[in-house]
Amino acid sequence: MSEQNQPIFDLVRDNLPGSSWAAANWEGSFQEYLQLVEARPLLARNAWQRLLDMIESHGCVRPQRRGAPVRWKLFDDPLGEGEDAVFGLDAPLDRLVQTLRAGARGLGPERRVILLHGPVGSSKSTIARLLKRGLEAYSRTEEGALYTFTWSVDGVEVPSPMNQEPLLLVPEEARRVVEERLNRKQKRDYRIRIDGELDPVSRYYQQLLMQRHGGDWQKVVGHVKVRRLVLSERDRVGIGTFQPKDEKNQDSTELTGDLNYRKIAEFGSDSDPRAFNFDGEFNIANRGLLEFVEVLKLDVAFLYDLLGATQEHTIKPRKFAQTHIDEVILGHTNEPEYKKLAANDLMEAFRDRTIKIDVPYNLAYSEEVGIYRRQFGKKRTSGTSLAPHTLEIAALWAVLTRLDDPTHPSLSLLQKAKLYDGQEVQGFHPEQVKEIREASPREGMQGISPRYVQDRVATCLASQVQSVGPLEVLEALEEGLRHHSLVSNEETRKRYVQLVASAREEYEEIVKHEVQVAIVADAEAIGRLCSKYIDNVKAWVTREKVVDPAGRESDPDERLMRSIEEKIEIPESRKGDFRHELMNYIAAVHLEGGTFDYRENARLSRALELKTFEDRRDTIQLTSLVSTVVDPDAQEKIAVIRDRLMREFGYDQVAADEVLHYVASLFSRGEAKRGGEVPQAA
Fold first, then answer.
1. 315/455 same-domain check
2. φ, ψ for residue 86 (rounded to 5)?
3. Residue 435 is part of which domain span?
């Protein structure tokens, strides 16, 4: 029976995982568990080691460029099909992974709070969510398996309330021997360690059974059942989240657990561990990860517990001794809260026990676009289309607000944004980007949040128009600044408005270029012009004559070469450098057995397109679009241009018509700065 005709109940049943439930609910004796651990020592990893292995299990992308950060695929959100993917933060995420690696090796970070610090909307919570979700999924796999235990005493089964590692049942005297055996068999660059003591409940039953069996450890562990442990934030197993609330309604027992007053009468004492609920966030996050939301808003009393949990790996439940924990503690905070921390001398101890990882906004607008595409995919914008470049221009504006003005006199803010985006900028090399970044270490820690852009794009989409383009979105971004709660400074608001104008100018250059390409749209003509230009450049560089197909010789056509080079603003004084660089590049391509293709050289390709466009100026004027009368011949040629825009650049008919009218109006006002005065249609 096909799935379409299958009853829903059967469809659900047939899509359930078959063997995963049995594997996740494995139970066995302590001796059987020791056999498992001996065969697979990584079962006994601590929380830092397990979290590192989880991230590495998803793989990474090694950088092509030396010194660039590794991209860890977990943060592409493979488990959520990219819904929570993090864009443009490869460097801070790589620092986070390297911190976890050092902690896994016991080099110090395991005794610190990892503090993600950055402006609002910079993905700090998303990073924590991906780590938690990854741990949950990893614990369900064989590679990420971990185990805990239950006491079976007088017909009553009592689970370890903090889901502790069964190897903590190994007496202190034998632990080093067991560690040596396990570390001889595992190949990771960290060591398996048996650190810590049993929680108060397990210690109570261990001592009870030791007395009952006369100190016979083998008989004591005979009362132990080992079981598979699956981490789950929803079930409060191995993953915890703590968020500050009103000081009057919150106390430290939410972190370390509290007395169960109903059980005090049953067990007769408030110091009996069986009368205590080990359900604070520190307790339930044992073996996994604890996230502190807005950690610096915690009351001082909570910070004392946090300091002990990080430095000593212990917590102090009320009425009980220090209790061992094994978990990664991850906090995050915004810029204003961190500034208060830095200015408070009383918080020196906390600052000393944190590893701060800055999580800035994106500074590469092609990465920023990924955030918006995730939010405004076709499935979510049905009925209203987004014209090409809409999200790209919005992303460009957002990035411009986050950048400092360049210190280099020859570099504009827009060029700086393009450099950060990995694009070529005349006069600058990719190696200089690092120096430019180092001159502005605070970039990305201020500016416009992605959330603001998303909200304004959503407003445009909700207006029920058929197509939303960059101009509508830029207008909405500018209009919203008047009411934006995070832009209270009038000088800052004016700067952001000016940057809207800069983004609009860049958009104008983009669409003018696309219309020009659509008008030219003759690859053969551009190819012929390229061959002619290369022949003349080669003759000029080698000081030879140009030979035409008929065998006639002539001097290099300087006028032709300059007419092309001027299209990309190469000055007379730099023409020789450009020509020599071009010939060297062509020679290198041929030496490698390749064929030179002008389209692989963005600057040369642009110059050839503009020159071809200029040479075809004398047919029909595109500015007739803004005229009240358009003759049939012009309409037919404009329809061809429209079709090319739709085919080559992804416009729909409505957006293509709007772009044609917009570009025509620009040229009719005499605003064309590149590629001729008035564009024509071939």
1. no
2. -100, 130
3. 365-507
